Amino acid sequence: MPSFPIENQSPLEIPPLRLSQQTGDKPLVSIVWLKRDFRLQDHAPFHHAATTGAVLPLWVIEPDWWQSADMDSSHFNFALESARELRSKLREIGSDLFIQFGDILEIFSQLQQSFTVRELLSHEETGADWTFQRDKRVGRWCRQKNITWKEYRQDGVIRRLRNRDGWAESWQRWADTRLLPAPHQLTLPDQLKTIQANVENQQRWRIIEAAQTPIVHLQKGGEEQAHKSLASFLTERGANYRRGMSSPLTANENCSRLSPFIAWGCINVRQIYQAVMQTKAIRGADKQWQSSLVSYRSRLSWHCHFMQKLEDEPSLEFENLCRAYDGLRENEFSEERFQAWCDGRTGYPMIDACMRALREHRWINFRMRAMLVSFASYDLWLHWRKPALFLARHFLDYEPGIHYPQIQMQSGVTGINTIRIYSPEKQGKDQDPTGDFVRRYVPELRQVPTSLIWNPSKLTQDEQVRYGCEIGRDYPFPIVDHAQAIREAKARIYEVRQTSEARVKAVEVAKRHGSRKRRDVFPKPRTHQQLLLPGFDALPPES
Predict the structure, then answer these.
(1) d(CA 489, CA 234)
(2) Which helix (H) or strand (E) holds 98?
(3) Do residues 48 and 29 make contact, with C-beta atoms less than 8 angstroms apart?
């Protein structure tokens, strides 16, 4: 009986899906293998399976996922909430969702003992490396067993793409394609209709649900929640999207907050795009709405644009996109600085407030994400890999295909993007002008006046006593000097950037991954005041 490893708990025993061994002809069945696609609407595998006969909907919780460095219990909670709702919907149409824990090939082999697998149906996945390696193993197994595995597109990513020529046009055709309706009925195999099979499936669900470690203040998963969020965004909240998305004070309400639902497949980009375009037509001459919807629509295509990068070059989960930057930071990693950044104890109030808010809610808006990565990369001179894994675990909307290209871009190792360094003090004054956000998440500073809150290390001894915050005891001194740190960082980055090797490799990166917009491959340095960070400002994970 496979065990389910839960942090700080004893392993939980999950009973296998027990089916009678077949001695004669085994019944035909199509398996719909769910990964990160917990919905019924516009779900191609379910849509196809509904016409084939008996269908086994299957969700396998894989040990490789649970043990991966980018996994967090909040991800599991959200996936389980989404799976539970999907199961309820499936039972309404005569089916069920069967849950297993174990290696995917072992599960498939067990099922093959009782069924003749007509076909395996799933969505394509552009995920972390363990999913890539897993899918290659599944492909080999299907070929050995002479089982047809049909994979369907869930997003605008294109498999085996040679270059980006015509990619935008292809994305648009996909986005405009008619949505598939949810199936009205799915037929279970006779063996799974028995009382005993249902009892055992109920037992498996109870065991898995007992493994939840709920975190307060998180979004709840599920297809229904996804569509409720979409509806509220397009009828009310979205009007101020463009104005409100940059500040952590307003982003929670004015951003769509659909990114976790997209990441876990409770809704897809195509569904959102078509709803946005319908709303855009309805809103007519309303300039505020039109501006916000145009801005939001661009982020939907950027979503797939960045995922395409990981699809085309899976190694960028681990390696610099532009290899000319190898060795730039790797040998100077400071665990002490990294831990202070993770804990929100850097001595920079806006950095610390954002990190603590992220740890509590598993979400922070795009500009603050960019600022956090900028600080780690340039002020603290940390190589991007460990900060990326920390953020992956703390982003409820973690999407590997977007996450790693974005982290690398802000770290300055793509070779083709402008270096953008964010000032924590300026971002605080611009995005939290009253200091309310900082006071909420850095309560050590709650009595400090707004005029002094951005540089608490400059408080006099009398002021520290007056405002109840002793620097160095209640709140840390700045971990680095921002001005000096970024001056040194810029010099080192541009020293590499100006080499012939970096320029040659940058051209190669642009040819393979560039968006085909007219742009200078070697743009001149700009400040964050002049140009927002493309990608973090054009991303659905934060939108």
Answers:
(1) 42
(2) strand 98-101
(3) no
Location of structure tokens 């790797």: 330
Determine what percent of the chain falls in helix, strand and coil, rounding each to the nearest 5. Answer: 50, 5, 40
Count of beta carbons in the 10 Å neighbourhood of residue 161: 15
Contact by Cβ (8 Å): 126, 309: no
Planar angle of CA 125, 128, 129, nearest 5 degrees? 105
- The amino acid present at 427, given as its one-letter code, is Q
Q: Cα separation of 374 and 370, whole Å?
A: 6
What whole-number distance in Å separates Cα of residue 374 and Cα of residue 380?
9
Provide the CA 119 distance to its chain's centre, in angstroms: 30
Task: Tell me the CA distances in angstroms from 392 to 67, 69, 128, 267, 505, one per residue in order.
Answer: 14, 9, 11, 20, 28
Angle between helices 349-361 and 424-431 (to 10 degrees): 70
pLDDT of amino acid 212 = 67
Tokens representing 185 are: 């009925």
Note whether 18 and 11 are within 8 A (CB): no
pLDDT the model gives residue 523: 40
Q: Which residues make Cβ contacts (< 8 Å) with residue 188, sequence separation at least 6?
A: 54, 55, 56, 94, 95, 96
Task: Identify the pLDDT of residue 1.
Answer: 43
Report domain extents, the chain.
3-210, 223-314, 319-513
pTM: 0.91
pLDDT of residue 216: 66
3 state DSSP class of 54: strand
The backbone region for 217, taken as left when phi is positive above 0, alpha when psi lies in -120 to 50, beta otherwise, is left
Could you say which residues of the chain have pLDDT below 70? Answer: 1-24, 195-197, 211-216, 517-543
Q: How far is CA 427 from CA 306, 409, 417, 422, in A?
A: 25, 19, 21, 7
Of the CATH numbers 3.40.50.970, 1.25.40.80, 1.20.1290.10, 1.10.3720.10, which one belongs to the domain with range 223-314?
1.25.40.80
Q: Tokens at residue 231, please?
A: 């509806």
Angle between helices 385-394 and 349-361 (to 10 degrees): 50
Domain 319-513 classified CATH 3.30.70.100? Answer: no
CA distance 299 to 375: 24
| Residue 522 tokens, joined | 């070697």
Amino acid (1-letter code) at residue 351:
I
Regarding the domain with residue range 3-210, which homologous superfamily does it belong to in the CATH classification? Answer: HUPs (3.40.50.620)
